[in-house]
Amino acid sequence: MPINDLAVPAEPGLRACGYYRVSTGRQSEANLSIPSQRQATRDFCDRKGWTMAAEFIEPGATATDDQRPEFQKMIERACDDDHPFDVVLVYSFRRFFRDGFGMEMYVRKLAKSGVRLVSITQELGDDPSQVMMRQIIGLFDEYQSRENGKHVRKAMIENAQQGFYNGSPVALGYKAVEVEKRGIRIKKKLAIDPVEAETVRLIFRLYLQGDGTSGPLGVKKVVTWLNERGYRTRLGARFGVATIHGILTNAIYIGNSVFNKRDSRTLKQKPVKEHVPTEVAAIISNADFEAVAANLKVRNPRTTAPRVVTGPILLTGVASGCDGAMTLRTGTSSTGKIHKHYTCSTCARQGKTACKGRSIPMDKLDTLVTENLIERLFQPERLNVILGKLASRRSDKASEIDRRVSALQAEVATAEDKLRRLYTMVENDLTDLDDILKDRIATLKSDRDRAKEALARIIIHPKLDAFNAEAIERFGQIMRQNITTGPIPFRKAYIKSVVDRIEVDDHAIRIIGDQATLEQVIAGDQNAGPNVRSFARKWRTRHDSNV
Question: Which residue ranges in the chain fall short of pLDDT 50?
């Protein structure tokens, strides 16, 4: 009889259940461990004269926690009132748990129900010395697991740094392709899946531009549009809001794939210094991705009320009276006709002591705004004047920056030249490196570094794009058409792309926008921040009214 058999009495007739586990799906698919565990456990039962009452198989699950379906099912069954098992059999304690505290907790839970945990390769009794030995084995298993994890993470980080794919879920639009083989290891990289990539581009296009019959769609509208037309995820499921939002915010689509970004167990963000960027082919342009990010931020319900973005009122969110936004108010005349007015919300909330309650018929304000935008902004002659003034102002600012850059570069060159001459004198023994000379060198270094830091902070703005007459005419025609026809959300999206706000007072209506923003819209680059903010309210260069 083997020595280990002396540790656990035979006690014929006991009912046992076997628990078999492997750590990875690859091991499970290859049948490298579970069949051998099962056979060894059954042989042990035969030798002891025990009955194998049940078996629980856990393929591809880690033993560092208890988040294992078969493990939980086994524990629940073992603790049932009918006491189906007397013993839980495992090949080794590490198959049961690889965390010292967790193992002891479940050992005690089983013991309360009269069930023992037995390892067929590490047989231990119930006396204090052997209980302590089991605890020590558990601690060693935990240590070994942590060491293995450390080495695996190191290998995966090295793999990611070389640009290879580590096996995380592949984002829609990509596929993992084999690129080389090193021994038995197959190295893969992410490549664009042409079919799925078109779906990704469609999602971004719908969110930014719409489908051609409406304005830009919100996330939920994109979900509805895709599902109604039969688009499905890679697994054949319908799209959901979370799925679309995840696609719109996933930087992998602009080529920024990051490994080791989150802890795999807690999902907490890791420090940026631990992130490993990996290059992948981009599906979406940086401009489109940043435009989506900006729109998501603006449309966030915590930032902007949904009615402002998709509501049925054309100027909601841009029209203002005194200090408050103008909102829709309705009334019914004696004839039963419904009247709609834009009314200052401050008066509605706080009474006429806060605001006298400026009001204007909705149709009148909508017509005044759209007609004046068409006549005074979206005509090619007016657009040329605005862009010309913006280019002139930007040129003046660029000249100022150029002069500052030249002065700083001269400071850096002068300081470095003086430092070189001082170093040469010291090297040629023409002077001694005394305290006075040390202070002078330190001062020169400080001046040089200050000038370099100032240079690094200066942003060189690109030149204003040169727009030809055809591009300006095309833009004006599109805007004239789209702010007057189509669904309200569609028209509102085009107005808000160039209008910051509309101020309504007793004698004038002022339409206020930013010139640099207008330039970006014409260029088709609405996402980037203005290169030089003019802070000019308008297109009203003389502070006059547009109405």
Answer: 1-6, 25, 27-31, 308, 461-464, 525-539, 541-547
Question: Cβ of 412: how many Cβ atoms within 10 Å?
Answer: 17
Under 8 Å between Cβ of 347 and 325: no
Can you give the pLDDT at residue 204? 93
φ, ψ for residue 186, nearest 5 deg:
-105, 120
Buried b (16+ CB within 10 A) or exposed e, 272-296: eeeebbbebeebbeebbbbbbeebb
* Amino acid occupying residue 81: D
DSSP state of 265: T
Neighbours of 333 (CB within 10 A): 8
Extract the tokens encoding 210.
């719409």
- In angstroms, the CA 317 to CA 325 distance is 7
pLDDT at 349: 66
Phi-psi region of 260 (alpha: psi -120 to 50; beta: other; left: phi over 0): left
DSSP character string of 106-130: HHHHHHHTT-EEEESSS---SSHHH
Q: Where are the alpha helices (DSSP H) in 12-68?
A: 25-30, 34-48
Q: Rounded to whole angstroms, how far apart are CA atoms 509 and 544?
A: 10
Residue 20 β-bridge partners: 57
DSSP annotation of 325: B
Both tokens of 311, joined, read 């509501």
pTM of this prediction exceeds 0.85: no
Specify the pLDDT at position 378: 78
- What is the spatial distance between Cα 417 and Cα 326, in angstroms, rounded to a whole number? 64
pLDDT at site 264: 66
Q: Give dist(CA 368, CA 366) in Å, integer.
A: 6
Q: Residue 157: which residues within 8 A CB-CB, separation 6 or more?
A: 259, 260, 276
Please give the structure tokens belonging to residue 225.
């549009």
In three state form, how does the secondary structure of 203-242 look? HHHHHHCCCCCCCCCCHHHHHHHHHHCCCCCCCCCCCCHH
Q: What is the pLDDT of residues 435-458, one digit of tens each?
A: 788 888 888 888 888 888 777 766
Tell me the pLDDT tens digit for each residue of 305-334.
Answer: 555 455 567 777 777 777 677 777 777 777
| Cα Rg of the chain (Å, integer) | 36
| Phi, psi of 340, deg, nearest 5 | -120, 130
